[in-house]
Write a structure and sequence with these properties.
two-stranded antiparallel ribbon; 157 residues; alpha+beta
């Protein structure tokens, strides 16, 4: 746990520009089984790359850990760093997935953004990953094809 710099720090600094170096990990102590870890992030913000207007979303990040797990305070600070990032909704969720896969090498991971409407349209991008050539890749394919058959109740709009 000595490698965790953010957790318990009395000197938290909030970074307003995208920075994946804020992410930290710790060891998964239950590697012998599959289990989900789910983060609900109802205050995600980024900027439209064209208009520079703020976009707001609830992000759902779920994963089945392998060897490493993401530390939640570092994840919060990382997500906060998107505040001044100019990226389309679809780009943001793909960047988050790529960064978390590179960081943890999880068995399975998905990111679902439920953005509030602007101009009368909401955009809810979903992306996932499973370790190639394993049951997790098959799970990713199945969940991608079926992820919105039974949508969750949306309370952020």
């Amino acid at each position: 746990m000595e490698s965790l710099k953010q957790l318990g720090s009395q000197h938290t600094q909030y970074i307003f520009d995208y920075d994946n170096s804020l992410l930290e990990t710790f060891d998964n102590k239950h590697r012998e089984r599959d289990y989900f870890v789910k983060f609900n992030c109802p205050e995600f913000t980024s900027l439209c790359p064209i208009t520079k207007q703020p976009d707001f979303a609830t992000l759902y990040i779920s994963y089945i850990p392998n060897i490493k797990m993401v530390e939640s305070k570092s994840l919060k600070l990382y997500l906060f760093s998107f505040r001044n990032h100019g990226g389309f909704h679809e780009d943001c969720v793909n960047i988050i997935l790529q960064d978390l896969v590179a960081l943890m090498e999880p068995r399975y991971l998905e990111v679902w953004g439920k953005f509030t409407p602007r101009g009368g349209i909401s955009i809810d991008p979903y992306v996932n990953y499973g370790i190639p050539n394993t049951k997790y890749a098959q799970m990713a394919e199945y969940r991608l094809l079926n992820h919105d058959l039974y949508p969750e109740t949306i309370t952020n709009r």
